[in-house]
Amino acid sequence: MIFCARSVRIITKAVTRLLREKKRGLPLTERGINMKIITIEEHCADKRILDATAKYGAPSYLTELPEKVRGAYNSMRFTGEKLTDVDTVRFDFMREQKVDVQVLSYTTPVPDTVPAEDAVRICGEANDILAGIVKKYPDRFAAFATLPMAAPEEAARELERCVKEYGFVGALISGTWQGKFYDDPAFFPIFEKAAELDVPISWHPEFPDAKIQKHYYLSGNYPAAVGMQFATAGFGWHLDVGLHITRLVLSGIFDKLPNLKFISGHWGETIPSMLDRMDQIMRPQTTGLNKKISTYFHENIWYTPSGILSKIQLEYTVREFGADHVIWALDYPYVPFDTCSADFLLKANLTDEEKELIAHRNAERIFKLN
């Protein structure tokens, strides 16, 4: 009797193992796997921080623009319950889109136009509020720190505080900061601290300088509302972020800080298609860099869709940079979704391993998420 029971157990284990091996060869959907989804460009807001920032007046990129254009800008912004309601509206979205974990960050307007001494306080309060959300739902949220860019030394200290005290997974920086690019040596302490802490800097678009907007985008033969969209989410602010990152590469930031990691949204903010050209024209013997420009974009930068669920862009980015350099992001709540994010990834023309890397494994590794 003992022998028979033991034989049954051995046979059962053998059959189970064979079935498991057979099942591994099937697509994820046929294997019955509900793939874990982590998204990392997911915005929130808090009325206290919005009020604290608003009292300093509109930023210069608005006040210097024509009234009709400012009206078009205001019609684009959304600061309602999708941003502020974490407990109900956000969870409804996450359930609908099959998102398990969001990495939260503050949306615009961030306190980038506030005087340095007040920016330090307001950013600190904003990060305290974010930490409270993460503490309340530790299995559903992580967070990027908001930094007082007007005071780089204090910003570096705030990043360290958020990482060490709250477990934040990095910082989100919005360019442009009052018309300045971040290759300015004054901002180096922020990147140095990020490299020291081994946390990434995620880049988010912000409005180009008002003069650039007027000259390149708002002077065309089209309505003011179209000009504002052209200057911002339609094109202009993506180019602006791409310029920020490329200028930092050319400044030698990754030669000085080889451990530094950047995250670039919207499939690389217009830059990937130009890498071969930049390598051809701006070679190391001219730039003084240790490597080709494209090498830094392959080694030190990770890419997200930011809600642009494009099959062609996804496949191109994976082929160019590798699935281990792509992280999923939905840009909540600013992008309308016709296709569920998890279903979109499941149906992509990628291997199961590539899908799992993009869906959660890359984020878990880079952000050290359990």
Question: How is this structure best described in words?
Answer:
Residues 18-32 have low confidence and may be disordered. It contains 19 helices and seven strands. The longest helix is centred in the first third of the chain and has 23 residues, at 2-24. Helix 9 (188-197) links the parallel strand 4 and strand 5 (201-205). The strands form two sheets. It has a four-stranded parallel β-sheet with strand order 4-5-6-7. The two termini are 45 Å apart. Helix 7 runs parallel beside helix 8 (152-166) and helix 8 (152-166) packs parallel to helix 9. By secondary structure, it is α/β, with parallel strands linked by helices.
Strand order of the largest sheet: 4-5-6-7
SSE ordering: HEHHHHHEHEHEHEHHHHEHHHEHHH
Helix share bin: 40-55%
For the sheet with most strands, the description reads: 4 strands, parallel
Low-confidence stretches are 18-32
- By DSSP, the count of extended strands is 7
Tertiary shape: globular
* Ends apart, CA distance between termini: 45 Å
Determine the number of helices (DSSP H or I, runs of at least 4 residues): 19
Question: What is the gyration radius calculated from CA atoms?
Answer: 23 Å
